[in-house]
Amino acid sequence: MKIVDVSVGVIKQERKIFVSKRADELHQGGFWEFPGGKVEPDELPSEAMRRELFEEVGIVVTKQSPFMLIEHDYGDKHVRLHIFLIEAFDHQPTGKEGQQTQWVELSALPELAFPAANTPIVEKLITEFID
Questions:
Q1: Contact predicate 7/82, CB 8 Å
Q2: Where are the domains of the chain?
Q3: CATH number for the 3-129 domain, one of 3.30.750.24, 3.90.1150.10, 3.40.630.30, 3.90.79.10?
Q4: What is the pLDDT averaged over residues 5-29?
Q5: Which residue range or ranges hold the Nudix hydrolase domain (predicted)?
Q6: Distance, CA of 101 to CA of 63 (rounded, Å)
Q7: Long-range contact list for 59-66, CB < 8 A, 24+ apart?
Q8: Of 71, 92, 101, 111, which is the most buried if we count CB atoms within 10 A?
Q9: 95 with 32: CB under 8 angstroms?
Q10: Whole-number mean pLDDT of the chain?
Q11: Which segments of the chain are extended strands (E)?
């Protein structure tokens, strides 16, 4: 099975995280997610993350750090998620592609429905920034 590399930005501002909702017709549609997208050929994951966040939510990343790497098999596809913590950026994020978005308190993240591959991200955020 082919591995799909995806870059993800966890946009953090104080004790809130910016999330968006996947369109119903997409893979894992209807779930909340951390913005990001596929890494293009000959593109570094960090470059893909900056590009995707600009395209999807309109921010220019000014401070990022690697957060974690997750591999997950959905059965129909295998994804490798390159997750970056975004703690500084220009402009306010918004749903540039018409997607629903919101800022969520860190403590409320477990209440949202995320794709299974995102569960370790939520758990690590809670552990590192709340516990």
A1: yes
A2: 3-129
A3: 3.90.79.10
A4: 87
A5: 1-127
A6: 21
A7: 59/11, 59/86, 59/89, 59/90, 59/91, 59/92, 59/93, 60/89, 60/90, 60/91, 61/9, 61/86, 61/88, 61/89, 62/88, 62/89, 62/90, 63/87, 63/88, 63/89, 64/9
A8: 101
A9: no
A10: 92
A11: 3-13, 16-21, 32-33, 36-38, 60-73, 78-90, 101-105
Amino acid in position 50: R
Structure tokens belonging to residue 14: 């104080």
Query: Six-digit token pair at 17?
Result: 């995280």
78, amino acid identity: H
Give me 9's structure tokens: 């930005």
Residues in the chain: 131
The owner of tokens 């995102």 is: 118
